[in-house]
Amino acid sequence: MTMKEEEKQGYSLKQLMFYFLKLGTVGFGGPVALVGYMHRDLVEKRNWISEEDYKEGLALAQLAPGPLAAQLGIYLGFVHYRVIGATLCGLAFVLPSFIMVVLLGIIYKLFGGLFWMQAVFYGVGAAVIGIIIMSSYKLTLKSVGKIQWGLMKKNWLLWLFYAAGIIVTAITKTENVLLFVAAGLIYMFVKAPPAWLKRPITANSILLGITGFWQFEWPLLGKIGLFFTKAGAFVFGSGLAIVPFLHAGVVTENHWLTEQEFVDAVAVAMITPGPVVITVGFIGYLIAGFPGASIAALATFLPCYLFTVIPAPYFKKIAKNTSIKAFVDGITATVVGALVGAVIVIATRSITDFSTALIALASLLSLIYIKKIQEPYIIAVAAILGILLKLL
Q1: Do the Cβ atoms of 90 and 70 come closer than 8 Å?
Q2: Apex CA 70: angle with CA 66 and CA 73, to 5°?
Q3: Domain spans of the chain, in order of start
Q4: 392 residues of the chain, pLDDT tens digit each
Q5: What is the rounded distance in angstroms from the CA atom of residue 119 to the CA atom of residue 161?
Q6: 8 Å CB contact between 130 and 360
Q7: Residue 134: which of 32, 232, 230 has the closest Cα?
Q8: Which of 27, 15, 35, 37 is nearest to 81 (CA)?
Q9: Spatial distance between the Cα atoms of 207 and 8, rounded to a whole number of angstroms
Q10: How many CB atoms lie within 10 A of CB 151?
């Protein structure tokens, strides 16, 4: 873009990139808070992005699979600076938290067996349960609907998918991607059947150096890449929506991490700024060192990047397609249900005594009654409580 064009937009690509670098470094509070910061800073305060462009980006981020905040950041980079803007802004947003989780992974591997590290995660792991419960509740209200009889009766099919997600995940302790796709297709066919269904069916089909730093095996990296690509491609909504998918693959199916290590990984995502999904970097590091962290992060965010950049030029038309909206609504309701099911599974293994139950309850009540409190403060208090309880 030329100097004149930059003056017309009111900002340069460098300025926008540094904004996302800063947001990725100090932006706490999860996806809802992060998208709020973007609106406040880029739309209201600086007038770099129009209200219309912001709303379109938010709609695309909600429609496409992948972490909400990261996708919105990528789209806002695309608005005036196209692919290069989307790429640089996405990298700037994710890179700070990626570096942080790798450093935490190094510390975890070095000191994970020591008393103080175990004590910290004793408290933090319990607090995370309360945080995820609250996030699940908010996601339920946003994605499925308010818990009122009239509204539940109106959206009975979404609530049915939601319940199915809870039950299947809680019983099988795994997440079934086919269940998500089936729910999306059923809801699409019921609510907004595509035009081709009204025509005679012919051949139509639906295609759907430090400890462990360089320790890895090539076949394992391939498995990590494949699994985390699926995680990035099939998870809709908030960053925490990826938790049940990760839990099923990382703990239950592949046995890459223990239950405690997985809960600790979720806790790490809570205490670091930027997108919550960056926990994949921490998980990847525990599995296969720095190469594992890099492959896990790249594989997770690449689908999110492609799902944002490819449809971005045509999104004004796509957003009006009722069939696509219905498909995503069906998937989202089931995914949120799966998140609640995963909370049940993780809670039964993480809350092991009265103290951890009390910490989990306290973190939940704090989020309900202290409106402006942020998750990192809860995590910090839980870490201190964990150390004190272990010492006592």
Answers
A1: yes
A2: 135
A3: 98-391
A4: 555 555 556 889 999 999 999 999 888 656 766 887 888 899 989 999 998 888 888 778 867 777 878 999 999 999 999 999 999 999 999 999 999 999 988 888 887 665 777 788 788 878 878 877 887 787 788 778 888 888 888 889 999 999 998 898 788 766 566 787 788 889 888 888 877 665 554 444 443 345 556 555 778 999 999 999 988 886 665 566 677 788 889 998 999 999 888 888 887 877 777 777 888 999 999 999 999 999 999 999 999 899 999 999 887 677 667 887 788 778 778 877 877 887 787 788 778 889 999 999 999 999 888 877 877 788 889 889 988 988 87
A5: 39
A6: yes
A7: 32
A8: 15
A9: 42
A10: 13
220's tokens: 């394992």
What are the tokens at 241? 């929506």
Structure tokens that stand for 226 in this block: 């494949």
Token representation of residue 84: 């290069």
36 C-beta neighbours (distance < 10 Å), count? 12
Cα dihedral 32/233/269/350 (nearest 10): 110
> Structure tokens of 368?
């309900």
Tokens 């910290």 sit at which residue? 120
What string of H, E and C letters represents the secondary structure of the chain?
CCHHHHHHHCCCHHHHHHHHHHHHHHCCCHHHHHHHHHHHHHHHHCCCCCHHHHHHHHHHHHHCCCCHHHHHHHHHHHHHHHHHHHHHHHHHHHHHHHHHHHHHHHHHHHHCCCHHHHHHHHHHHHHHHHHHHHHHHHHHHHHCCCCCHHHHHHCHHHHHHHHHHHHHHHHHCCCCHHHHHHHHHHHHHHHCCCHHHHCCCCCCCCCCCCCCCCCCCHHHHHHHHHHHHHHHHHCCCCHHHHHHHHHHHHHHHCCCCCHHHHHHHHHHHHHCCCCHHHHHHHHHHHHHHHHHHHHHHHHHHHHHHHHHHCCHHHHHHHCCCHHHHHHHHHHHHHHHHHHHHHHHHHHHHHCCCHHHHHHHHHHHHHHHHCCCCCHHHHHHHHHHHHHHHHHC
Give the number of other CB atoms < 10 A from CB of residue 128: 32
Buried b (16+ CB within 10 A) or exposed e, 352-375: eeebbeebbebbbebbeeeeeeeb
